[in-house]
Design a protein that fits this description.
Blueprint lengths: L1 H35 L16 H18 L4 H24 L1 H11 L13 H15 L2 H25 L3 E3 L2 E2 H22 L7 H20 L8 H19 L8
Antiparallel strand pairs: 1-2
Helix pairs in contact: 1-2, 1-3, 2-6, 3-4, 3-5, 5-6, 5-9, 6-7, 6-9, 7-8, 8-9
Length: 259
């Protein structure tokens, strides 16, 4: 019983450490805005046509930090930490809705990365953490990390490329140029990740090329999955990526993803 309590205590401390590291990262990102800026108003927040680079960087850096932390802990702890992060975001949103003071504090801290509709609706970060929790809970480590990589790199880069390059649209908020650029970058990032963590399973250039094409296809298809009304693609992209990677790993005998 004592050993079980010690183990539970160690797990709780590591979960708290993981959440704390991500929160510290956000504190560094938001500190200048908190200290030197007033709370934003709706007409000063970034629209979908704005590059909104601080929002993209926050999105990217959070995902990379989570992936890095995942490799220092077990799947169980990673799941608990991501659940804690999701519940934290839910709690913040509920507090915002109940108390105006809490909403003003939230806007002062995070207003620089919000869109106008997020003044009253759940922020994208809540859906992001929900997606992270689902993939860490239901998929193997490498699949979960690649799924988080897709939403952390693909989503912001697709938005930047779509706004910058323009071109034909797939839907109201997605372009072919953005989807292609985001998918290609995700593919190269996924291959780099796997060459670092599983180099023994990529012995030839042919194997690397096949993996690159597979991960590009997964990232593109995940980006194209429509988010149900009221939800966000920060939730659908990692879940769709995880499902496609899992199915593809079985069909293409990429068993190194299933660990």
């Amino acid at each position: 019983t004592w050993e079980l309590l010690v183990k539970m205590s160690d797990n709780a401390l590591f979960v708290a450490l993981c959440v704390g590291v991500v929160l510290l990262l956000h504190a560094v990102i938001f500190a200048p805005k908190i200290l030197f800026s007033a709370a934003p108003k709706a007409d000063t927040l970034g629209s979908r046509r704005n590059l909104h680079l601080n929002r993209r960087f926050q999105h990217f850096s959070t995902g990379i930090a989570i992936i890095a932390l995942y490799h220092f802990c077990t799947r169980q702890i990673a799941t608990q930490a991501s659940l804690a992060g999701f519940l934290f975001m839910v709690s913040i949103h509920l507090l915002r809705r109940r108390w105006d003071f809490a909403n003003r504090v939230f806007l002062r801290v995070c207003g620089s990365v919000l869109r106008p509709h997020e003044l009253t609706e759940p922020p994208a970060a809540l859906f992001f953490m929900a997606g992270v929790f689902v993939v860490t809970a239901f998929f193997f480590r490498h699949i979960a990390c690649l799924a988080i990589l897709n939403v952390s790199i693909g989503d912001p880069m697709a938005a930047i490329a779509g706004i910058t390059l323009g071109g034909p649209k797939i839907s109201a908020h997605k372009t072919w140029s953005g989807t292609i650029v985001g998918a290609v970058l995700c593919g190269f990032a996924s291959v780099a990740y796997l060459m670092f963590y599983t180099p023994e399973f990529l012995p030839s250039s042919a194997a690397v090329s096949s993996l690159l094409l597979f991960t590009i296809a997964v990232a593109a298809l995940a980006e194209l999955v429509p988010a149900p009304k009221g939800l966000d693609d920060n939730l659908t992209i990692p879940i769709a990526s995880g499902a496609l990677l899992y199915i593809g790993a079985h069909l293409l005998n990429m068993h190194f993803l299933l660990v």
